[in-house]
User: Fold this.
Amino acid sequence: MRQDPLSQKIDWASVLLFGALVIAGWLNIYAAEYDPEIDQSLFDFGTSAGRQFIWILTSIAIAFTVFFFDYKFFDSFAYIIYGIFVALLLFILIGGKEVAGSKSWVGIGGFGLQPSEFAKFATAFALAKYLDQPTRKLTDLNTLGVSFAIIILPMALTVLQGDTGTALVFAALAVPMFREGMPPLLPIVAISVFAIFILTLLVNQTVLLAGIAIVTLLALGLNARKPKRLVYIIVSAIIITFSVRSVDFILTDVLKPHQQKRVLSLVNPNIDPLGAGWNVTQSKIAIGSGGFAGKGFLEGTQTKFDFVPAQITDFIFCTIGEEHGWIGSIIILGLFAGLLLRLIHLAERQKSTFSRVYGYGVVGIIFFHFTVNIGMTIGLFPVIGIPLPFFSYGGSSLWAFTILLFSFLKLDAHRMQVLQRW
Assistant:
């Protein structure tokens, strides 16, 4: 039977959304640094926009290269790819290059690459490979333990490099685990612990503990004749109380001073308005100044004149809000939402567990970056320094996201074929 060419199997809707986001990011990088008194071009390699253009061209080459790989390559070499990047993360701890307080870079000539960015898709491959066995169920403690170990190893190594923000992204791989049957209690507990952490920063601990005690006593009274529920209520109360009491320890003994300030600034931006709170305050001013339709392309002042730090990387969304306003912001949010919904659709139509798990891994990683990055710029999340996918300036980020996405599109193009290992 005649095989359709690869070009007819590729999901071009995802490719077009990728292209739209990359081009929009490039134009906003140019706008953020544009100076009307200097003759600047989008293709001036001495500017960030010019260098980003090189990263875009090389990313297109990477996408084509991924499509030329045999689709069985990703499954067959998943553990090897994972092992290579874990080894690189270990190497970075010894001979890495320190940038902005994080020893997470490796120097290659005049450039620097961040292996932790690439370790994300490597970990997604390894998790998909492990779960691609009919006997492995995430309701089984052994399977659950090994799955978490696969995720936690690169996560811990990234934390040791001083890059806590990037390390947190690995937690997004809980998305495919949840899709494959992980008990919902685990993500509920994780979200609850985070909520309790934030609530403890907002409310006096004594008052909060008293409230927990009252709610616990009421729950015990209402369920006095149900012994099993009583056990759950008591255990839950102990966990919640422990979480509340551990907040001070985490703030003073686990987080670094600059991380402590970022967390505290989240709940009270006025605590250090000229220090840790400066980024978010200026970011919200920039976005708010754009109004409904924005100031116009190349007309932004807050980002262009460096009121907003890291305006072409972590805070690139400020340029969109300031120059294109609410309308431009909604368009960009729509592009991301469209891409994520499309990827969920692709993941659900996969015939193999490997492809489906990896697809949901792609969705989880992009969603985490997208949500947290934009949340940082509007003060919903602490500033943890992660880029906006396909948008922020930087080669490592763009290359890694390109490989992450196009590897899945390659698998999707062969979804009707049986995934056999070499």
